[in-house]
Amino acid sequence: MKRFVSGAVALIAAGWTASTQAAELYGSGAPYTVQQPLLNGYSWAGPYLGVNLGYAWGSVDHSRIEPSGVVGGVQAGYNWQPGPWVLGVEADIQATGAEETFAPWKFSNPWFGTVRGRAGYAFSNILVYGTGGLAFGELRGETFGLSESHTNAGWTAGVGAEFLFAPNWSAKVEFLFIDLASSNFTITRAPNAYQFGLLRAGVNYRF
Predict the structure, then answer these.
(1) Which pTM value belongs to this model?
(2) Which of 24, 111, 136, 166 has the least CB density, counted as fewest CB within 10 Å?
(3) How many domains does the chain fold into?
(4) Which sign does the torsion angle of CA 65, 153, 177, 171 carry?
């Protein structure tokens, strides 16, 4: 009995020491794990939902107009993690204030969205990744009281990094290049497309 008690006390003491060292290393949040335990105590596997905020800037084909503005929206995705490699899919929808007026012409991009694959490598609680896939959104042209809108599909590609900072929570920074294919605008008598860069930061909650 005494040996059992002594062993239990020793085990508790060892666990307390390890927990204290982990707390000092990672802060108040314990290492994050989901579904599968990894040797380093972190896992990126599973579903997530989040919000983002950023800035977009670009140009319109066959026009001197360069719409830019603040962008914000929501994203959702799912990751699989074979070893240190992280594979996933993510979709987002964004509202944007990107617009510009030149002479009598105005172009704006009220909204857009993407559906992308992601592939990356995890260094413990830090993930670096590349991403690419489908983009879609609205390009609106206006002149002399006339307005014309087209919703086009195109493509997107980019890179990003994500950081697990607490149980169930991660933060990310991401750059995307987005090309919304051209449509023939009656008011401009030309095919107009919108290509733009997007730099954004976001927070995800992991289930």
Answers:
(1) 0.78
(2) 24
(3) 2
(4) positive
Phi–psi pair at 103, nearest 5 degrees: 55, -130
175 close to 186: Cβ distance less than 8 angstroms: no
Longest dimension (CA), the chain: 92
Cβ(138)–Cβ(111) below 8 Å: yes
Burial of 51 (0-12, 13-18, 19+ CB in 10 A): middle
Q: Which residues contact 119 (CB under 8 A, 6 or more apart)?
A: 85, 86, 87, 88, 129, 130, 131
Within 8 A by CB and 6+ apart from 93, the residues are: 73, 74, 111, 113
Q: Are 54 and 176 in contact (CB under 8 A)?
A: no
β-pair type (85-102, 68-80): antiparallel
Helix, strand, coil % over all residues of the chain, rounded to 5: 10, 70, 20
pLDDT digits 0-9 by tens, 135-175: 999 999 999 999 999 999 999 999 999 999 998 999 999 99
- Whether 46 and 81 map to the same domain: the answer is yes
pLDDT digits (tens, 9 = 90+) for 97-113: 999 999 899 999 999 99
**Residue 9 DSSP SS3:** helix
Tell me: do 152 and 72 sit in the same domain. yes
Cα distance between residue 194 and residue 70, in whole Å:
16
Check: CB of residue 56 under 8 Å from CB of residue 176: no
Q: Which domain holds residue 3?
A: 1-27
